[in-house]
Amino acid sequence: MAALTLADEQPGCRLGWNMLAGIGKIESEHGSIDGARLLPSGETTPRIIGVPLDGTDFLATPDTDGGAIDGDAQWDRAVGPMQFIPSTWDVFGRDGNGDGRIEIDQIDDAALSAAALLCDPGLDLTVGEHWIAALDGYNPSASYNNDVADAAEYYAQFG
């Protein structure tokens, strides 16, 4: 649904659903990482909250939300099924399920928000270097990029 919404809003982006699926797979096993699951409402339970971004395993990202979204007032943490850090969520958070709320833990909201972030540069994502640049804006790690590409390629075979 998110890719279709962005196709209407930003047809030049040409975001494939499989790119979002690849991100969802790598970020949270589609909302099922560490025993979490998606409820019929599309929300994850329990909440998916990543490790503190304190520079140990990932780029150090000091707190940007006073702990309001991620529960950590010292470091940011990635949250939800598409793993947004609070400052990025503040910019790109969207209501993907049309319920009037923008919820980081709700899969439709998170997927549409990810699509908005990926399409923000205004690039045609069917062009290889544009796809990579958009994904780098999501997570600037070469290994992450390769993992998402592999997952997206796998999903592409299902049309």
Automatic annotation (TrEMBL):
<dbReference type="InterPro" id="IPR043426">
    <property type="entry name" value="MltB-like"/>
</dbReference>
<protein>
    <submittedName>
        <fullName>Lytic murein transglycosylase</fullName>
    </submittedName>
</protein>
<feature type="domain" description="Transglycosylase SLT">
    <location>
        <begin position="75"/>
        <end position="120"/>
    </location>
</feature>
<dbReference type="InterPro" id="IPR023346">
    <property type="entry name" value="Lysozyme-like_dom_sf"/>
</dbReference>
<dbReference type="Pfam" id="PF13406">
    <property type="entry name" value="SLT_2"/>
</dbReference>
<dbReference type="InterPro" id="IPR031304">
    <property type="entry name" value="SLT_2"/>
</dbReference>
